[in-house]
Write a structure and sequence with these properties.
By secondary structure, the chain is mostly beta strands. The protein has strands at residues 3-7, 10-12, 18-25, 33-39, 46-51, 57-59, 67-72, 77-82, 91-98, 106-107, 111-115. The strands form two sheets. Strands 2, 4, 5, 6, 9, 10 and 11 form a seven-stranded mixed beta sheet that branches.
Length: 117
Amino acid sequence: QVQLVESGGGLVQPGGSLRLSCAASGLTFGNYVMAWFRQAPGKEREFIGCAWRSGTTYYTNFLKGRFTISRDNAKNTVYLQTNTLRPEDTAVYYCAAGPMHAKYDYWGQGTQVTVSS
């Protein structure tokens, strides 16, 4: 049974940072592209970026530079470092796994990030 478990969300002030983690189990981690998405209230889920086994990453343009994805294949974990957070970054953040980019078969339950003073 595949499980993706996100952690690290919470309440942070504008300008702050958070490091989200996603621990995977039940799959051969190195065979999967790992991605991060987010969904704000009343909005559609949007793609943030993804990382291949090699460590190569790809990001959506509007977040590139503030958010960084990395993965530790030995720990079956993918990370999302979020910097210079803004109130509009408030959302539930999800990780996903798939055999290729844009084909994500497995999803975590999400972790809430709230940016507010």
